[in-house]
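Design job #97: recover the sequence.
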């Protein structure tokens, strides 16, 4: 099923470019304009110049962010800022981080994965993609014929056959950097042919589940099709038939999914009393009233109660503008979702994000599903305190606090061939850009 292969990774030459911590950047889609400028100032060789270059009012077909990235890549390759490994290999990638008082470690491998049509069932998505980001990434891929980061994906390895090979690495890492999100990232290169063959052989019967990077996979798929059409004939083994991925074990306890809370704004004719009445048809409602002194503590109580109930109930936190109360909403009957979404799979209907988006936001608030991705009424916020601040500052009518989507739910929805509502998952930690790069040969 899944075909993976080793490749000649392109890495920074730190003797010429400087220390790695000044050269890498976060994923392009979470870089703010201010952070983009800061990365430019940090080091003249920061990978942001390749992955997410600045635009200019004078940009045109001949000179734009993509052509400039291509020119920079060529210059850095020619001058020895970037060096390709002499022999193909796999790259072990480990991330160590704290969650609460616990230290967690996620270890996987960077490799090339043969691009497959979704219909084959080999690569399974779970999120819907948007045209804008795909156009942007396709323009960059066309110009540079390279990738500077990897698609974050998962594979089942219940027997640990692949994981045991990755665990053999004990020597000092080739690269190590602690990023500003307090995550330590480590890279080892793996060139042992027997170990590589073991991993390739054991991946051959696996399905791959995209965790983070749906837009980039769709881009790679579109680029492959584009190149095949231009070539007229192909073997399927050309370099454009493969894409760089980070593969982690689906069962790895080091995997973390964070929630994305929802702030709803610009709600015309929003009536809090009517809304509470409508909610009461489907949810058990608990209320905690707070004052200025208890607000922060009571919000934390709501979040902790939600987490405690996550395994046996569909529960949401809520705050409404103008009220000094937090709410807990617990769905009474899952069968209500069966009636509402008869055409969807049970896995999809039982998702918290499905309940929130279809039942509460669409049905009760009247914001239709097709508009959720446009961001006209919904803001997705990772930090609960920041989300709460939207209502506190009257920037939103209502905020919903979420429990994170479970990894097994990602797998179940993907296997059902469905896509989750917008921003259903936020896998953590995020892969760094610029540690290991791939140039099409």
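Job complete. Output follows.
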């Amino acid at each position: 099923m899944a075909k993976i292969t080793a490749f000649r990774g392109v890495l920074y030459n730190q003797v010429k470019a400087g220390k790695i911590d000044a050269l890498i950047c976060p994923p392009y889609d979470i870089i703010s304009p201010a952070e983009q400028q800061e990365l430019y100032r940090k080091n003249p060789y920061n990978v942001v110049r390749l992955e997410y270059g600045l635009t200019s009012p004078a940009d045109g077909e001949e000179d734009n962010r993509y052509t400039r990235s291509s020119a920079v890549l060529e210059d850095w390759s020619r001058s020895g800022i970037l060096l390709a490994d002499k022999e193909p290999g796999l790259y072990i990638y480990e991330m160590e981080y704290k969650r609460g008082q616990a230290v967690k470690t996620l270890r996987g491998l960077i490799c090339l994965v043969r691009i497959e049509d979704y219909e084959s069932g080999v690569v399974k998505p779970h999120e819907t993609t948007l045209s804008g980001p795909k156009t942007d990434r396709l323009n960059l891929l066309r110009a540079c014929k390279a990738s500077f980061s990897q698609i974050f994906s998962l594979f089942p390895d219940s027997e640990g056959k692949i994981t045991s090979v990755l665990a053999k690495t004990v020597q000092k890492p080739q690269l190590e950097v602690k990023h500003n999100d307090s995550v330590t990232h480590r890279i080892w290169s793996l060139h042992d042919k027997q170990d590589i063959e073991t991993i390739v052989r054991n991946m051959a019967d696996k399905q791959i589940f995209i965790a983070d990077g749906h837009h980039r996979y769709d881009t790679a798929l579109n680029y492959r099709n584009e190149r095949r059409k231009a070539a007229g004939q192909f073997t399927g083994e050309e370099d454009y038939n493969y894409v760089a991925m980070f593969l982690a074990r689906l069962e790895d306890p080091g995997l973390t999914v964070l929630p994305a809370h929802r702030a709803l704004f610009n709600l015309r004719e929003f009536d809090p009393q009517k809304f509470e009445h409508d909610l009461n048809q489907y949810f058990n409602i608990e209320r905690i009233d707070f004052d200025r002194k208890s607000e922060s503590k009571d919000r934390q109580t709501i979040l902790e109660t939600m987490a405690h109930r996550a395994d046996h109930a569909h529960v949401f936190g809520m705050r409404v503008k103008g009220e000094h109360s937090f709410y807990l909403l617990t769905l009474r009957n899952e069968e209500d979702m069966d009636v509402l979404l008869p055409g969807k799979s049970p896995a999809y209907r039982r998702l918290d994000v499905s309940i929130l988006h279809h039942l509460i936001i669409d049905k009760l608030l009247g914001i239709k599903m097709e508009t959720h991705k446009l961001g006209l009424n919904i803001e997705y916020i990772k930090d609960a305190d920041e989300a709460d601040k939207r209502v506190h500052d009257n920037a939103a009518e209502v905020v919903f606090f979420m429990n994170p989507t479970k990894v097994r739910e990602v797998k179940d929805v993907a296997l059902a061939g469905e896509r989750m509502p917008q921003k259903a998952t936020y896998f953590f930690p995020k892969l760094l850009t610029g540690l290991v790069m791939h140039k099409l040969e």
